[in-house]
Specification:
The protein is an alpha+beta fold. The protein is built from 13 helices and 12 strands.
Length: 410
């Protein structure tokens, strides 16, 4: 039976603590910590998942077009001047007819490329590319497996990969994966899987590997790739605690509570009180006998403005370290300066998108070759062109919509 006196002491004093802080998710070398941080830390989630969503908002542009002319890079039909239906018919004059002996190299762009639009949508390749970008940027590498039936593909990381095989030159050639599938609403039914996978090698002619090893960046030392969040990790933790200090006015840095124990307190009970304060959060209340605690003196500033300033300073450092504008994280630009900041911010984001996309270009081409047998010459990131406004020093507005420059005044 529950002791009612203990409930009286603790009821109503528990406050929410972020899981990342409560469970001290701060070990970068632990893949569980990295995975959880990218899921729950708002800055890391924006930097990894948010930025990848921005990159893959539109399908990549393939050369040749694998979407049957439905891709963004295809010529806009509305901009094409078609005078009559005759213009839409292919030219089959004797000079341009193709003999059956000619090869695809002779035909060049005249050969129609398979339209994979339906397969792309049904097999959810947009989700595959998003997962393909998210995972290596977090864990430095991933392994993608293609299947002939649903679920069509899986992306494995350090969670599922138990061992990796290498050739004599140290290149990964295969791996063993093991994972557990928990069925929703099944009263705890689990299905265990394990596979031995062979990696696809674009340099080999006789390669039937159905798995693709995808590292991020350039491997250094004994690493398989680069961690895109490594240099941001400590900054994210700092901001996490500063934010807690602001919202909960905790005793992390802005102050603390001084507890004066009464004479009736037993020696063993002092640690119990300290442990209780740590659990409930020192910004809340604690229940104790009058004789045990005579007084609690709060020692902390009346305002958290210094913590807010520290938060803004850390956010700026985080943005600079990630090579992205602050507006990408906080959703608004800082005012001031003579230049149009919007276009500067957009150019920074575009450069970052192009860099990240460039890390995955060869592997996207490999996946298309593995799935459809199409040789892709190039794949590019779609970036919407923004019309930039011109700006010249010395231009002045008379307040009526008319602009005068120094040359006009002369």
């Amino acid at each position: 039976m529950t002791n009612l006196s203990s409930l009286v002491d603790s009821y109503g004093v528990y406050s929410y603590k972020d899981d990342l802080i409560y469970y001290k998710v701060e070990n970068f070398r632990n893949w569980r910590h990295r995975e959880l941080a990218v899921q729950k830390d708002w800055l890391l989630k924006i930097y990894i998942n948010g930025l990848d969503q921005e990159i893959l908002t539109e399908r990549p542009i393939f050369t040749p077009d694998i979407f049957g002319g439905k891709g963004i890079d295809s010529k806009d039909e509305e901009e094409t001047d078609v005078s009559s239906e005759e213009d839409l018919k292919p030219d089959i004059s004797p000079q341009t007819q193709v003999s059956g002996e000619e090869t695809e190299e002779d035909l060049g762009e005249d050969i129609a490329v398979q339209d994979v639009s339906e397969d792309w949508e049904n097999e959810k390749w947009d989700n595959l590319l998003l997962k393909m970008f998210d995972t290596p940027r977090t864990h430095s590498y991933c392994v993608i497996v293609l299947y002939n039936t649903a679920p069509w593909w899986r992306v494995f990381s350090e969670r599922e990969i138990e061992s990796i095989e290498y050739d004599k030159k140290g290149h990964p050639t295969g791996c063993h994966v093991s994972w557990t599938l928990e069925l929703p609403k099944s009263n705890g039914v689990f299905i265990n899987f394990d596979e031995d996978l062979t990696f696809y090698d674009r340099t080999s002619d006789n390669n039937d590997g159905r798995a693709l090893f995808v590292p991020y960046g350039v491997a250094k030392g004994n690493r398989l790739g680069e961690y895109d969040i490594e240099d941001l990790w400590s900054l994210a933790i700092d901001i996490r605690y500063i934010n807690l200090d602001i919202t909960n006015n905790s005793a992390k840095s802005s102050g603390f509570y001084f507890l004066k124990y009464g004479d009736a307190l037993k020696e063993a009970d002092s640690q119990t009180i300290v442990d209780t304060m740590d659990i409930i959060g020192s910004n809340r209340a604690i229940g104790a006998k009058k004789g045990a605690l005579e007084d609690i003196v709060a020692i902390h500033p009346t305002q958290a403005s210094f913590a807010i300033d520290a938060l803004l300073a850390k956010l700026k450092i985080f943005a600079a370290t990630s090579r992205l504008p602050l507006a990408f994280y906080v959703g608004e630009k800082e005012t001031g300066g003579v230049f149009t900041e919007g276009f500067t911010d957009e150019s920074k984001v575009d450069k970052k998108k192009k860099y990240i996309f460039g890390q995955f270009k060869p592997y996207i081409k490999d996946l298309v070759r593995m799935r459809w047998g199409i040789e892709v010459e190039d794949v590019e990131l779609y970036i919407e062109e923004t019309e930039k406004e011109s700006f010249e020093f010395g231009d002045e507005d008379d307040g009526k919509g008319n602009t005068y420059s120094q040359d006009n005044q002369a």
